[in-house]
Design brief:
Radius of gyration of chain A: 18 Å
Structural class of chain A: alpha/beta
Number of domains of chain B: 1
CATH topology of chain A: Rossmann fold
Largest interface: A-B, 35 and 32 residues
CATH topology of chain B: Alpha-Beta Plaits
CATH superfamily of chain A: Thiamin diphosphate (ThDP)-binding fold, Pyr/PP domains
CATH class of chain A: Alpha Beta
Shape of chain A: globular
Number of helices of chain A: 11
Number of strands of chain B: 4
Largest sheet of chain B: 2 strands, antiparallel
Oligomer: heterodimer
Distance between the termini of chain A: 48 Å
Strand content of chain B: 25-35%
Strand order of the largest sheet of chain A: 3-2-4-5-7-6-8
Chain lengths: 263, 76
């Protein structure tokens, strides 16, 4: 009987074919799954599955190559952008993206990240920021917020001792090699729609050979933050967005000064 | 009203409830049964679904397929 009901209906949304059938290993409610899916949806819609090469990081998303049905390369911790540079230079016609977390891109890989953008490599860097080291057990990351309790800052992050959260996206937006820099989130359906639009334009910009595209995705880590997925979404809005405001930071053709006043 | 429905891959659903919160028609809920992984999975609780795709957009496990009533061509 169910088949009869479905006969009169048309599919308006389904899992993209660019994702493999392997179930994600991520914790319930983790933003990595949405980020993977949206990137692969864009690859499917642009029809560039056989021309796309991804570089997987070390961290929770270390097994990204199990899920993304495109050519993938695993990189050493923090060096995904360096590996992507090599791939893009050898195969300049391919669409190359790196997918990194905050412990990978903003901690051990800070030097590689900044120099990749400074050289203006024509790659897309996707930065998933969940303000914690998820895979290793919820330790403090460079992007952890002031006062945030983690397993290595049990009394909350103290800026006088450990410093301030690293806003690496604003940092690299100042570099002349950066072409398109934006910050998006995956906590609501509308945020996901905006992220998809930004990722689509970022993939399209790669054809222009104008510089690095960098998209930060503010994500959640229910397990690391020790809360349920719904609470973690609220926590993103209340705590992450004041420090990491969403929106375009550097858009081609517009003023190059990074703006922080947008919502 | 436009009718739609969702098909949820219950075996890969992890019961994170994000789709339940994202549904504007409040037609999703967690089941009383558990799946092979031991999670309560999301399921439809009424016929109010309009096929708006919100649940599928926030699903971290890409477990939701959304169907919507085909647009009826005007009779000549």
């Amino acid at each position: 009987m169910e088949a009869n009901i479905l006969d009169n209906l048309e599919v308006v949304y389904q899992k993209p074919e660019t994702l493999t059938d392997t179930p994600f290993h991520y914790c319930p409610g983790c933003g990595h799954g949405v980020a993977h899916r949206v990137i692969m949806e864009v690859v499917e819609e642009l029809g560039i599955q056989d021309q796309t090469i991804g570089v997987a990081p070390v961290g929770c998303s270390v097994f990204a190559y199990h899920y993304m049905n495109v050519d993938m390369q695993e990189a050493a911790h923090g060096r995904a952008s360096a590996a992507a540079t090599g791939i893009k230079r050898v195969l300049p016609d391919k669409y190359v993206f790196s997918y990194q977390g905050d412990g990978d891109l903003a901690a051990i890989g800070t030097a590689e990240t900044i120099h990749t953008v400074n050289r203006g490599e024509n790659i897309l860097m996707v930065f998933v920021n969940n303000a914690i080291y998820g895979m290793t057990g919820g330790q403090m990351a460079p992007t952890s917020l002031c006062g945030q309790v983690t397993s290595t800052s049990p009394y909350g992050r103290e800026a006088t001792q450990i410093g301030f959260p690293l806003k690496i996206t604003e940092l690299i937006a100042q570099l002349p090699g950066a072409y398109f820099v934006a910050r998006h989130a995956v906590h609501t359906p509308n945020a996901v729609r905006k992220l998809k639009k930004a990722l689509k334009s970022a993939f399209e910009y790669q054809k222009l050979n104008k510089g690095t595209c960098f998209i930060e995705i503010v994500s959640n880590c229910p397990s690391g933050w020790k809360m349920n997925p719904l609470d973690s979404q609220k926590w993103i809005e209340e705590n992450m967005f004041p420090m990491y405001p969403l929106g375009d930071i550097k858009v081609p053709g517009k003023s190059t000064t990074p703006s922080t006043e947008n919502n | 009203m436009i009718k739609g429905t969702v098909l949820i891959a219950t075996d890969i659903c992890k019961g994170c409830e994000l789709c339940v919160a994202a549904c504007p028609q409040h037609c999703l809920t967690l089941s009383k049964q558990i799946n092979t992984k031991g999670y309560r999975f999301a399921e439809l609780k009424n016929e109010e679904c309009t096929g708006c795709v919100n649940c599928a957009l926030v699903c971290p496990d890409a477990a939701i397929t959304v169907y919507r009533q085909a647009k009826i061509k005007k009779a000549v």
